[in-house]
């Protein structure tokens, strides 16, 4: 991250899983301090929580490590030119997320706040509280409080029941 801020490259190819500082936070810091530096995330993680966290952090591209060499080069070139690029499967999921019809995951639980819905989505995806805290840059205590609020608002007694309800509504993909 320090080198990227000093050298100001056109593109930084970033992994999500890194020692010391995870790739999402590194992306956030690089794009906040140097908006001209494009970040392309190249990782094994394809869950929606990680994809959307990377986009919110400022990544302009997201590819899975299984992408072929030509796709990676094309993505780097696109990000360097100021564009955004996502692998075909991820692009489809992003489009589905934003094109969701009423009654979809965004409106399934109107009693929940946006943050609670985001936490529920990650719970339904099988994430632990510690993983949710890391993905959303929250403290573990804040995540516990959000999970408790979700359980109360959904009137369920445990995580398993919340997961069933969330998945029926299309969350946790």
UniProtKB/TrEMBL annotation:
<dbReference type="Pfam" id="PF00072">
    <property type="entry name" value="Response_reg"/>
</dbReference>
<protein>
    <submittedName>
        <fullName>Two component transcriptional regulator, LuxR family</fullName>
    </submittedName>
</protein>
<dbReference type="GO" id="GO:0006355">
    <property type="term" value="P:regulation of DNA-templated transcription"/>
</dbReference>
<dbReference type="InterPro" id="IPR011006">
    <property type="entry name" value="CheY-like_superfamily"/>
</dbReference>
<dbReference type="InterPro" id="IPR039420">
    <property type="entry name" value="WalR-like"/>
</dbReference>
<feature type="domain" description="HTH luxR-type">
    <location>
        <begin position="105"/>
        <end position="170"/>
    </location>
</feature>
<keyword id="KW-0804">Transcription</keyword>
<dbReference type="GO" id="GO:0003677">
    <property type="term" value="F:DNA binding"/>
</dbReference>
<feature type="modified residue" description="4-aspartylphosphate">
    <location>
        <position position="15"/>
    </location>
</feature>
<dbReference type="InterPro" id="IPR001789">
    <property type="entry name" value="Sig_transdc_resp-reg_receiver"/>
</dbReference>
<dbReference type="InterPro" id="IPR058245">
    <property type="entry name" value="NreC/VraR/RcsB-like_REC"/>
</dbReference>
<dbReference type="InterPro" id="IPR016032">
    <property type="entry name" value="Sig_transdc_resp-reg_C-effctor"/>
</dbReference>
<keyword id="KW-0597">Phosphoprotein</keyword>
<dbReference type="GO" id="GO:0000160">
    <property type="term" value="P:phosphorelay signal transduction system"/>
</dbReference>
<dbReference type="Pfam" id="PF00196">
    <property type="entry name" value="GerE"/>
</dbReference>
<keyword id="KW-0805">Transcription regulation</keyword>
<dbReference type="InterPro" id="IPR000792">
    <property type="entry name" value="Tscrpt_reg_LuxR_C"/>
</dbReference>
<keyword id="KW-0238">DNA-binding</keyword>
<feature type="domain" description="Response regulatory">
    <location>
        <begin position="1"/>
        <end position="80"/>
    </location>
</feature>
